[in-house]
Amino acid sequence: MTTFLQSLLIAMRALRVNKMRALLTMLGIIIGIAAVIAMVAIGAGASKMISDQISSIGSNLLLVIPGSTTSGGMRSGSGGTPTLTYDDAKAIKAECPSVGEVAPTVRGTAQVVYGNQNWSTIVMGTTPEMLTVREWPLVAGRNISQSDVDGATKNCLIGQTVADNLFGDLDPVGKIIRIKKIPFTVIGIMDKKGQSPQGQDQDDVIYVPLRTAQRKLFGSQFPNTVGAMMIQAKSAEVLKKAEEEVTALLNQRHRIGPAREVDFSIRNLSEILAVSEQSSKVMSMLLGAVASISLIVGGIGIMNIMLVSVTERTREIGIRIAIGAKQRDILLQFLTEAVLLTTCGGIIGMVLGIAGARIVAQLIGWPTLISLQTIIIAFGFSAGVGVFFGFYPARKAASMNPIEALRYE
């Protein structure tokens, strides 16, 4: 321990004597560590943002949309033909044991008016299960009930963006708004959701009972059809099984055989989340690997300067050996100096990296995530660079012949 402390003191004194050279030597390590921390923080922040946005839709979700069909030789695009019905949704809920909740939807855009305020927004007809499927709590009022759906009542839930634009500081619950000139009573306000993965404002929406939307707002020549269905599996473990059960049931209900084109599509949102997270991780690793090149360049600079230092201090090494210093003492002295250089550079780099990540977060509104694990790895890596690139110069100093070293001019 005493030998190590002596080596540390000698190393610190050597760095103080050549402050500018030490700073320039550390520059590569500083840039490398700062770049690694900033890049990993930005990549992790992006991954979390994507994950949060996809998770905000709901968990364990399947999205069923109408598929394309062929009529008279003409193929419609995906979702272009109303092939799903409210009865399909009821059947899925009743006959698929892995399915928890089903929320069919019909959507459109409408101008909404309250007093002298008006706002164009998405109006979605749905059932009470929607808030459960979307894991979307209310901040005031009550949910749409099944009696609202069956009776096609003119009640509605509104998102935070609609509430802000129509009511400002007023309490919307109980107020009457007009959707397509039809009066609706606001019975509840949904909590804030934020942006969707596609960048859309999820709070800019009004939910009305499904039957109301079908019969009074968005009349169709197919009155029982729905635009899509959001299905929540009972757990993540049975999500794949739920998808298979829904596919089999819809094939049976729509009489789809081997020779007939499937008229619906099922999208697994959990798989989309997994793919997005994996892509973000790969991007973070790529950015970290690119930034690590700076550390290698910095390490080579450390080795170069340490070799110069060994040459400059040849007589000092000879004197130390002559008065009793052993090879391991010389080795430890120069190795400590190299590690001290990279460690100091690592600490400065960490501070700059964290500051850089925070500045990026402020400037472009991009979240950054700085984990303790990243800091520890970066710090350990900088110390490892010192050991790796400092060993050869230290070994060269330790293996000097004391007589030749004392004769060195």
Automatic annotation (TrEMBL):
Domain MacB-like periplasmic core: 23-249
GO cellular component, one term: plasma membrane
Keyword annotations: Cell membrane, Membrane, Transmembrane, Transmembrane helix
UniProt xrefs under Pfam families: FtsX, MacB_PCD
Location relative to the cell: Cell membrane
Signal peptide range in chain numbering: none
Annotated ranges, domain ABC3 transporter permease C-terminal: 290-402
Domain of life (superkingdom): Bacteria
Major localization class: membrane
Topology relative to the membrane: Multi-pass membrane protein
Record field: transmembrane: 21-46, 285-310, 331-357, 369-392
InterPro entries: ABC3_permease_C, MacB_PCD, Macrolide_Exporter_MacB
A molecular function GO annotation: transmembrane transporter activity
This protein's record includes keyword Lyase: no
Family membership noted in the UniProt record: Belongs to the ABC-4 integral membrane protein family.
Designated name of the protein: Multidrug ABC transporter substrate-binding protein
Lineage: Bacteria, Pseudomonadati, Thermodesulfobacteriota, Desulfuromonadia, Geobacterales
